[in-house]
Amino acid sequence: MTRLNTIDIDRISCDLQKNDLQWQRTFGHTLEEIARKAVNAPHLNIGLRTATVPVTCGLGIIGGFNEAVRDILEHCGADVFITKKTDVAGIQEAYINGAELIFMADDDVCAAFSVHGNVTSDNGYATGIGFAAALEIMMERVEKEEVLILGSGPVGAAAAQYFSKKGAVPVLCDIDEAKACRVAASIKNARVERDRNHIRNYRYLLDATTSGDFIRSCDVTEQTRISAPGIPLGVSKEVMDQVPVFHNPLELGIMTMYFDCMKQLQETASGRRQL
Question: Of all residues in the chain, what percent carry a pLDDT higher than 90?
Answer without folding.
Answer: 81
